[in-house]
Specification:
- By secondary structure, the chain is an alpha+beta fold.
- It has one domain.
- It has helices at 2-16, 77-87, 98-108, 189-194; strands at residues 20-33, 38-51, 65-66, 73-74, 114-121, 124-134, 139-141, 154-159, 163-167, 196-203, 206-210, 217-219, 222-229, 238-242.
- It has a seven-stranded mixed β-sheet. A five-stranded antiparallel β-sheet has the order 7-8-9-14-11. It has a two-stranded antiparallel ribbon with strand order 3-4.
- A hairpin with a 6-residue loop joins β3 and β4 (73-74).
């Protein structure tokens, strides 16, 4: 599970190296959680990068470990090397150049879980990510929420001995500026208007609570909840499940 956290953390750190905030564009995302704690997660679609300004996160801020309730998430030598490489591409204004963005896409395509990572230009990436594992620790994509890195798309947290909480703050336009590093601002109007996708949760575990007003639908695989995400979505998708201890 540590490898899964490290992979998700590396995506966050890599895309934030040039002081960028990343947000979803058009996407389809799914999360399957079984009662035995096995899970599969996928994200296919666009990721948009926006400047956070001169006070954004810098490579030097990412040395060491990111802490979490489940223990540290290691930032290894490979990530620090990527920081050095991508920093070389920064232009005189401190903003990300196309060359830098392309370098990020190339690095991401080599990471576990990334079936494709392509830079489309104009700060837009096309991502095809899928990974499976077992929920013995938290899973986050693409940010480590406990390290206060901005705007996780999806966070899965272990709550006590037998509960799992799923929350997708990145799939809503309710960004809280106070939660960002050094008070950096949230996504701009273009990023806000670009939000367009679906997030599907399937499970055979007991659903304790969820915030999709149409509720869960029965399927051969168990229960399914589908959230449609648009620029008008203000409440992040959320559900709590009871799984095997």
């Amino acid at each position: 599970m540590t490898a899964l956290l490290r992979s998700a953390g590396m995506l966050a750190s890599l895309l934030l190296l040039p002081a960028c905030l990343v947000t979803p564009g058009r996407f389809e995302s799914s999360l399957d959680i079984r009662a035995d704690r096995s899970f599969s997660f996928a994200y296919k679609g666009e990721i948009l990068a926006s400047d956070m300004g001169k006070d954004g996160l810098k490579p030097g801020d990412m040395s060491g470990d990111f802490g979490s309730e489940d223990g540290p998430v290691e930032i290894g030598p490979a990530l620090l090397q990527i920081a050095d490489v991508t920093q070389d591409f920064s232009d005189s204004a401190g903003k990300s150049s196309d060359a830098q963005m392309q370098a990020m896409a190339n690095a991401l395509s080599k990471e576990k879980g990334f079936r494709a990572a392509r830079y489309l230009g104009e700060r837009k990436f096309e991502i095809d990510y899928a990974i499976s594992g077992r929920l013995t620790h938290a899973f986050l994509f693409p940010f480590n929420i406990d390290a206060q890195i901005v705007l996780p798309f999806v966070a899965v947290e272990m709550r006590g001995a037998d509960r799992v909480r799923v929350k997708a703050p990145g799939f809503a336009n309710s960004f809280d500026k106070s939660q960002s590093p050094m008070g950096a601002g949230g996504p701009g109007d273009d990023a806000t208007k670009a939000l367009n996708g679906t997030f599907t949760l399937t499970t055979n575990a007991t659903i304790v609570s969820q915030n999709q007003e149409e509720g869960a639908q029965s399927t051969p695989q168990g229960q399914r909840i589908v959230w449609t995400v648009t620029p008008l979505t203000s409440e992040a998708p959320m559900a709590t499940l009871r799984v095997s201890p």
